[in-house]
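in:
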């Protein structure tokens, strides 16, 4: 674990408060939505599937509606950041936010990190919607914002070491520099985006945009990487933030 700096003023909560708040809010939104399976008000079987579709279309971003001047649609890239398609989607995203968000928040500051997270996620989803302007498929998920956090982390802490699990190495826990893991992840996203043939689905393009925005912003603002005194918490290495077909 990386050693945290001493707390600030007396009475000020310690730790990555914003990161924990974002994780908590995302989990709460998921639990009260139809995809969690806990809210029985959405019915079951076919009724549940229809409810999920309506829920994603209401709170997710639908690119075709965004450019038709539908009222309040410009807010959907924001609401979509807190909506997830299934348990795997949610847990994958929250794991990456937990692993990489705490250090980024500590370096940026709480308010700055919160604004950075929202702005990067919004712009990443907006960029994806622009590239797929005719798509009527709802896009949800925090992957664009979390990809921005990964990009910023690469710029700020390139020498931090993370424990990663790679499927082709039989899931052996191996330690690598953050720059190696995150660049490998970025390359995988680029390859996946090329094989998507421009069709909407898993939002690899939003991942790439978020990562690039996060890295460039951190580079422009901080330039010099921070020194670290230890290793980052375990991560899933090159595995991208979890996304179902309706994810972002």
């Amino acid at each position: 674990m990386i050693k945290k700096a001493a707390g600030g003023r007396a009475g000020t909560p310690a730790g990555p408060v914003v990161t924990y708040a974002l994780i908590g809010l995302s989990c709460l939104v998921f639990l009260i939505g139809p995809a969690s399976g806990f809210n029985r008000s959405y019915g079951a079987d076919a009724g549940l599937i229809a409810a999920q579709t309506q829920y994603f279309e209401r709170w997710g971003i639908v690119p075709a509606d965004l450019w038709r001047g539908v009222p309040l649609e410009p807010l959907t890239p924001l609401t979509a950041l807190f909506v997830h398609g299934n348990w795997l989607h949610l847990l994958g995203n929250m794991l990456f936010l937990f692993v990489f968000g705490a250090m980024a928040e500590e370096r940026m500051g709480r308010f700055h990190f919160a604004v950075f997270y929202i702005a990067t996620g919004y712009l990443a989803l907006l960029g994806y919607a622009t590239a797929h302007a005719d798509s009527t498929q709802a896009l949800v998920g925090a992957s664009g914002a979390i990809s921005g956090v990964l990009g910023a982390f690469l710029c700020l802490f390139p020498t931090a070491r993370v424990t990663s699990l790679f499927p082709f190495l039989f899931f052996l826990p191996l330690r690598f520099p953050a720059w190696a893991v995150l660049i490998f992840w970025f390359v995988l996203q680029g390859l996946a985006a090329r094989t998507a043939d421009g069709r909407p689905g898993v939002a690899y393009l939003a991942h790439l945009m978020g990562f690039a925005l996060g890295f460039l912003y951190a580079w422009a603002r901080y330039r010099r990487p921070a020194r670290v005194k230890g290793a980052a918490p375990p991560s899933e290495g090159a595995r991208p933030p979890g996304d179902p077909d309706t994810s972002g």
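note: The beta strands are 161-165, 173-177.
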